Amino acid sequence: MSRERLLEERKNFRKNRPYGFVGKPASCDDGSVDLKRWECRIPGPEKTAWEGGCYPVTMIFPDSYPNNPPECNFPAGFFHPNVYPSGKVCLSLLDNDAELGGQWAPSINIVQILVGIQELLRSPNVFSPAQAPACELLKKNPKAYETKIKEQAKKYPAPEDED
């Protein structure tokens, strides 16, 4: 079921991806396609400190997908209150434990996941921090937080031709 769903998602993503977003299965060493590992890029939301950056995210799909969500990771050390130091994204949309506020549903697709992560960039959840330094800086000194985000955006420039 997972493979069929991911093949359908790939087809739909090619047709319906939001402007500036990139997502495709990774290539294996032998040149074949690894449907369970996607390399993606999320554009920084406009009119935010994130604007101008295009942030790499790796999505790793379990064999039980779509019943269980993928794990989504920015590069290790990515600065955001809801991203663990390892790069793992902490987002209720990617959690299937409803008792703990998880909102995962098998109907959620890759575009919705990527747009949800982009929205997390715009609106961090300070009540569920995964990275204390980023969360504390955002709460105590929002201007310094914004400056740090703008510096990070320079590390991940948007490509000249996004389409």
From TrEMBL:
Question: Per the record's keyword annotation, is Membrane included, yes or no?
Answer: no
Q: PROSITE patterns, per this entry?
A: UBC_1, UBC_2
- Which SMART domains does the protein's record reference? UBCc
Q: Which residues form the UBC core domain?
A: 1-158
Which Gene Ontology molecular-function terms are recorded? ATP binding; transferase activity
Q: Which terms are listed as keywords in the entry?
A: ATP-binding, Nucleotide-binding, Transferase, Ubl conjugation pathway
Taxonomic superkingdom? Eukaryota
* InterPro entries per the UniProt record, alphabetical: Ub_conjugating_enzyme (IPR050113), UBC (IPR000608), UBQ-conjugating_AS (IPR023313), UBQ-conjugating_enzyme/RWD (IPR016135)
* Presence of keyword Cell membrane: no
Q: Where is the catalytic site? A: 90 (glycyl thioester intermediate)
Q: Which family does it belong to?
A: Belongs to the ubiquitin-conjugating enzyme family.
Q: What is this protein called?
A: UBC core domain-containing protein
Task: Name the source organism.
Answer: Chlamydomonas incerta
